[in-house]
Amino acid sequence: MKIEKLLRWLARHGIEVSENRLQHDGSRVIIFVTQLPDFPHGGRHAWYVLALEKGQTEVSESEISTLLRHCWHGELEIPKDFDI
């Protein structure tokens, strides 16, 4: 999935970009944050770091799946073909 489409889709589900850093070598690091459910976590947050190589424009389905599970959104189905 294209990175920009992924960012918009995740934002719709409460997974926001906390930081978007361009590194000196041209790689990019995007830090996501989401609020965990009140029970059993009492409103705590989860963060996920996505590291992108220089020039990388897409994120693999397996990486997106890992991000969703880490952010307690494993129930979401990754869209195959959509226009966001």
Overview in brief:
This protein is α+β, with helices and mostly antiparallel strands.
Describe how the helices and strands are arranged.
Layout: H1 3-12, E1 16-22, E2 28-35, H2 38-41, E3 45-52, H3 61-70
Antiparallel strand pairs: 1-2, 2-3
Description:
- Strand 1 (16-22) and strand 2 form a beta hairpin.
- The chain has 3 helices and 3 strands; from the N terminus they run H-E-E-H-E-H.
- It is α+β, with helices and mostly antiparallel strands.
- It starts with a helix and ends in a 14-residue tail after the last helix.
- Strands 1-2-3 form a 3-stranded antiparallel beta sheet, with helices on one face.
Biggest sheet strand line-up: 1-2-3
| Structural class estimated from helices and strands | alpha+beta
Q: Into how many domains do the coordinates divide?
A: 1
Mean pLDDT: 90
Helical residue percent band? 25-40%
Poorly predicted runs are none
Tally of separate helices: 3
Q: What is the makeup of the main sheet?
A: 3 strands, antiparallel
Distance, first to last CA:
11 Å
Rg over C-alpha atoms, rounded to the nearest angstrom: 13 Å
What descriptors fit this protein?
single chain, 84 residues, alpha+beta, 3-stranded antiparallel sheet, 3 strands, 29% helix, globular
